[in-house]
């Protein structure tokens, strides 16, 4: 399944690139109304190639390569919005970077129209061809959480082009190796091993599709096998460099907002501008985390009735929605207590309770916590100011997926997707 996702991703990126360059050539032809000479085309290729790199970043941030949720109506809406942003970026770059040597007003306008039509046309055709071509039969064996979820999820993901069957034969078998009873219930399963059938582990497929681990199979053996406690020197160094390179300019730029935020907070209730909270960090060590105050008090996580009695202020609602309240955390990133990407740090009182009620909750503390993370992007039911054990348990499944698969490339993906989350919240 993961291979299928990577294959579709490669096809979509390649076809997008072809569409953009074909659209550019057609735009030059329409603009000049003649076959353009090569030197003229090459001049535009050099300049537009730099623009296209930015456009691909916009496509990624917009979610056009998140093919797990590729739906026809979503593609149209998202692509149109992305092209609006791309047009603004192109105008800014062409008119602010004189080294390009061109300011193609008409050509750029024509190119935006043609490229949008080509991108929409080929994507919709590709989507329809996948939906129609359900040629691969899949047999799912087992009655675990992972197998039951796969039976529910796969029919809703036409991007895979799969059809679930109840019995052999099947080109692919997804099985739960922990469910011996279910394995013995399928006659002739051993013969399928010699027939070219592709066998996949249910837990691995579930992780690849959903981006989370299955908590029902967690054990000491799983943790020892999948969670690396050895320092990854190259990754750790690159991650720290990324933290400083991104956090330092962001912190300096964010200082411009501090006076306005301070005035807004003080005007509402005359309370303190900042709050400092003790949070649990890497290896269980506590550190002080600073935020703009968004509630009428300082939340310490010691809830007598399972939830805080504090309320979010009017200014705090805006600060939270825009994530401005978290800007002071950049200081924690710069001094090394936090990273830009990682599991969110929790209050000590809540950590103590979760460690008692959620198995392997403390595993999330083997790495440095972050300002944003995998769970913040994909977990939709975030716990809010209370001991929400079930929501926190679900969130842990995303945190453990990140810890298991963490890499510099994954961190970059999370950073880009965080931009999308921020923009969607500001615009909500």
Automatic annotation (TrEMBL):
<protein>
    <recommendedName>
        <fullName>Bacterial sugar transferase domain-containing protein</fullName>
    </recommendedName>
</protein>
<dbReference type="Pfam" id="PF02397">
    <property type="entry name" value="Bac_transf"/>
</dbReference>
<feature type="transmembrane region" description="Helical">
    <location>
        <begin position="108"/>
        <end position="126"/>
    </location>
</feature>
<dbReference type="InterPro" id="IPR003362">
    <property type="entry name" value="Bact_transf"/>
</dbReference>
<comment type="similarity">
    <text>Belongs to the bacterial sugar transferase family.</text>
</comment>
<feature type="transmembrane region" description="Helical">
    <location>
        <begin position="79"/>
        <end position="102"/>
    </location>
</feature>
<feature type="transmembrane region" description="Helical">
    <location>
        <begin position="241"/>
        <end position="261"/>
    </location>
</feature>
<keyword id="KW-1133">Transmembrane helix</keyword>
<dbReference type="GO" id="GO:0016780">
    <property type="term" value="F:phosphotransferase activity, for other substituted phosphate groups"/>
</dbReference>
<keyword id="KW-0812">Transmembrane</keyword>
<feature type="transmembrane region" description="Helical">
    <location>
        <begin position="48"/>
        <end position="67"/>
    </location>
</feature>
<feature type="domain" description="Bacterial sugar transferase">
    <location>
        <begin position="239"/>
        <end position="423"/>
    </location>
</feature>
<keyword id="KW-0472">Membrane</keyword>
<feature type="transmembrane region" description="Helical">
    <location>
        <begin position="9"/>
        <end position="28"/>
    </location>
</feature>
């Amino acid at each position: 399944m993961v291979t299928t996702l990577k294959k579709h991703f490669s096809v979509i990126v390649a076809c997008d690139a072809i569409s953009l360059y074909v659209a550019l050539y057609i735009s030059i032809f329409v603009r000049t109304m003649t076959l353009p000479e090569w030197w003229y085309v090459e001049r535009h290729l050099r300049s537009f190639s730099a623009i296209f790199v930015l456009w691909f970043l916009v496509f990624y941030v917009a979610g056009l390569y998140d093919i797990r949720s590729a739906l026809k109506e979503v593609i149209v809406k998202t692509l149109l919005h992305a092209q609006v942003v791309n047009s603004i970026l192109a105008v800014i770059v062409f008119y602010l970077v004189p080294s390009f040597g061109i300011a193609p007003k008409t050509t750029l306008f024509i190119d935006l129209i043609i490229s949008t039509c080509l991108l929409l046309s080929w994507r919709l055709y590709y989507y329809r061809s996948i939906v129609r071509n359900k040629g691969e039969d899949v047999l799912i064996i087992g009655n675990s959480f992972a197998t039951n979820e796969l039976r529910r999820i796969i029919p809703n993901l036409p991007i895979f082009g799969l059809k679930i069957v109840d019995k052999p034969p099947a080109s692919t078998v997804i099985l739960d190796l922990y469910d011996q009873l279910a394995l013995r219930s399928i006659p002739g399963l051993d013969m399928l091993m010699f027939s070219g059938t592709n066998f996949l582990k249910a837990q691995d497929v579930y992780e690849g599709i959903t981006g989370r681990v299955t908590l029902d199979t967690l054990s000491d053996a799983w943790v020892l096998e999948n969670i690396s406690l050895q320092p990854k020197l190259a990754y750790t160094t690159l991650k720290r460099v990324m933290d400083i390179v991104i956090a330092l300019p962001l912190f300096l730029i964010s200082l411009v907002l501090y006076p306005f935020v301070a005035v807004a907070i003080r005007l509402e209730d005359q309370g303190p501008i900042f709050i400092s909270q003790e949070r649990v960090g890497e290896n269980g060590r506590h550190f002080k985390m600073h935020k703009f105050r968004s509630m009428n008090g300082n939340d310490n996580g010691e809830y007598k009735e399972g939830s805080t009695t504090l309320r979010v202020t009017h200014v705090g609602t805006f600060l939270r929605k825009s994530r401005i309240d978290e800007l002071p955390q950049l200081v924690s990133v710069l001094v090394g207590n936090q990273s830009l990407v990682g599991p969110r740090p929790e209050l000590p009182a809540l950590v103590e309770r979760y460690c008692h009620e959620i198995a392997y909750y403390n595993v999330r503390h083997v790495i440095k916590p972050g300002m944003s993370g995998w769970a913040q992007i994909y977990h939709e039911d975030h716990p809010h100011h209370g001991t929400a054990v079930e929501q926190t348990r679900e969130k842990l499944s995303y945190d453990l997926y990140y810890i298991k698969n963490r890499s510099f490339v994954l961190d970059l993906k999370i950073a880009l997707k965080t931009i999308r989350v921020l923009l969607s919240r500001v615009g909500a």
